[in-house]
């Protein structure tokens, strides 16, 4: 083989080696980009999990007592009924007893309030709000407009910004 052929052959082999190195470099770059993408996705997933955990912790803190509060609402209702059922004359006869019931009711309201529970107390004549009220019946009552509250059976309750129990009301069905 002539020296010319040998040098051409060496040049070709060197060129092929350069192409092989370029292919290897490209493969390494692609692998690096893939690892970078996977790392960024894992980082984003970790951040999302942290945010979700923080949100769940806040919700548990604010709304964790919902079940207990909901279970206490019948106690509130019964105390309110007891206080409403007694006339002034009866109240005077057993004033110490009713003062105790009123104090118990006040303390229950205070405890619920410390935990973010507030009452939804619609009045007769207010407009029905399906977000806070539950219509127990409809009746045509003269002098009212459709959708006005005509009777309040039980108060509703919110815990922070969530409805714990809707107020139970009667609603006018007049079509005036």
Automatic annotation (TrEMBL):
Pfam family membership, one: GrpE
Subcellular location: Cytoplasm
Keyword annotations of the record: Chaperone, Coiled coil, Cytoplasm, Stress response
Single GO molecular function: unfolded protein binding
Signal sequence coordinates: none
Highest taxon, organism lineage: Bacteria
InterPro entries: GrpE, GrpE_CC, GrpE_head
GO cellular component terms, A-Z: cytoplasm
UniProt-listed GO biological process terms: protein folding
Positions in coiled-coil regions: 25-63
Keyword flag Phosphoprotein: no
Matches recorded under HAMAP family: GrpE
Subunit description: Homodimer.
Function statement: Participates actively in the response to hyperosmotic and heat shock by preventing the aggregation of stress-denatured proteins, in association with DnaK and GrpE. It is the nucleotide exchange factor for DnaK and may function as a thermosensor. Unfolded proteins bind initially to DnaJ; upon interaction with the DnaJ-bound protein, DnaK hydrolyzes its bound ATP, resulting in the formation of a stable complex. GrpE releases ADP from DnaK; ATP binding to DnaK triggers the release of the substrate protein, thus completing the reaction cycle.
Similarity annotation: Belongs to the GrpE family.
Descriptive protein name: Protein GrpE
Lineage: Bacteria, Pseudomonadati, Pseudomonadota, Alphaproteobacteria, Rhodobacterales
Annotated gene: grpE
């Amino acid at each position: 083989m002539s020296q010319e052929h040998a040098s051409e052959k060496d040049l070709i082999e060197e060129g092929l080696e350069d192409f092989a190195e370029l292919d290897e470099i490209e493969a390494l770059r692609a692998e690096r980009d893939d690892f970078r993408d996977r790392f960024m996705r894992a980082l984003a997933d970790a951040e999302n999990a942290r945010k979700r955990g923080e949100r769940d912790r806040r919700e548990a803190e604010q709304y964790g007592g919902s079940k207990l509060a909901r279970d206490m609402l019948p106690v509130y209702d019964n105390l309110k009924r007891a206080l409403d059922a007694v006339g002034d004359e009866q109240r005077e006869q057993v004033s110490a007893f009713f003062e105790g019931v009123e104090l118990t009711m006040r303390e229950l309201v205070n405890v619920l309030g410390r935990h973010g529970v507030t009452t939804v107390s619609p009045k007769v004549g207010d407009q029905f709000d399906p977000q806070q009220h539950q219509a127990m019946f409809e009746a045509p009552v003269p002098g009212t407009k459709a959708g006005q509250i005509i009777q309040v059976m039980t108060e509703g309750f919110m815990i922070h910004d969530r409805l714990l129990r809707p107020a139970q009301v009667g609603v006018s069905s007049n079509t005036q």
